[in-house]
Specification:
It is built from no helices and seven strands. By secondary structure, the protein is an all-beta fold. It has one domain.
């Protein structure tokens, strides 16, 4: 999947844990982000990891676990 900074994404499925995108990363519980929540890509780490900002923080997520969000305007 081709992702760029600013893309809106969602998790394909819940992850076993979330890794924060801080200088000293920490593992956080997976229930902080639901698969329905839309996040924004704020950075890319190599070809296989994206920094995604959700409402409760920014996390390092493998690209293969992300799907582009479908946003419907009413």
């Amino acid at each position: 999947m081709d992702l760029t900074i600013g893309d809106k994404v969602q998790l394909k499925a819940p992850l076993p844990f979330l890794k924060t995108a801080e200088p000293m990363p920490m593992l956080r519980p997976p229930d902080l982000v639901s698969p329905e929540e839309v996040g924004t890509i704020v950075g890319l780490k190599g070809l296989d990891t994206a920094m995604v900002r959700f409402r409760c923080g920014t996390f390092l997520i493998p690209v293969d676990r992300l799907a582009k969000a479908v946003i419907v305007d009413d």
